[in-house]
Design goal:
Structural class: alpha/beta
CATH class: Alpha Beta
Number of strands: 5
Distance between the termini: 13 Å
Order of helices and strands: EHEHEHEHEH
Strand order of the largest sheet: 2-1-3-4-5
Largest sheet: 5 strands, parallel
Radius of gyration: 13 Å
Strand content: 15-25%
CATH superfamily: Response regulator
CATH topology: Rossmann fold
Length: 126
């Protein structure tokens, strides 16, 4: 039986969000944290074979989450992604999700429900 944890990459510029997601997911996953989109993309490029899902905030310094997803999908079109934001009133979320694919989660969210969503997203990732 393979007990190696799947790796997920999380990008958010809010340390409290990164800390909460790390706490919620690190028991089941190897969690890589990035404080902005550029850092997340650089890590993805260097380690793409390890990463099974990407979770990103929309509004971040250096590279917004939608651009991060576009760049990741240019490399791996099938990479599962979750886009998070607290700015859903300022952004046309349905068209953004349709364009990018993946899932959308509105901040703030229930951390336990979010963890279930991630487990479902990565269930088929090998």
């Amino acid at each position: 039986m393979n007990t190696e944890k799947k790796t997920i990459l999380i990008a958010d510029d809010e340390p409290s969000i990164l800390d909460a997601l790390y706490e919620a997911l690190s028991e089941d996953y190897e969690v890589i944290l990035a404080g902005n989109g550029r850092e997340a993309f650089d890590f993805f490029v260097a380690n793409q074979s390890r990463i099974k899902a990407v979770i990103t905030d929309l509004v971040m310094p250096e590279l917004y989450g939608d651009k991060l997803i576009e760049q990741i999908h240019a490399i791996d079109a099938d990479m599962p992604v979750i886009l998070m934001t607290g700015f859903e009133k300022e952004v046309d979320v349905p068209s953004l999700v349709k364009r990018l694919g993946g899932m959308f989660v509105k901040k703030p969210f229930d951390i336990f429900e979010f963890a279930k969503l991630v487990r479902g997203l990565t269930a088929d990732a090998s």
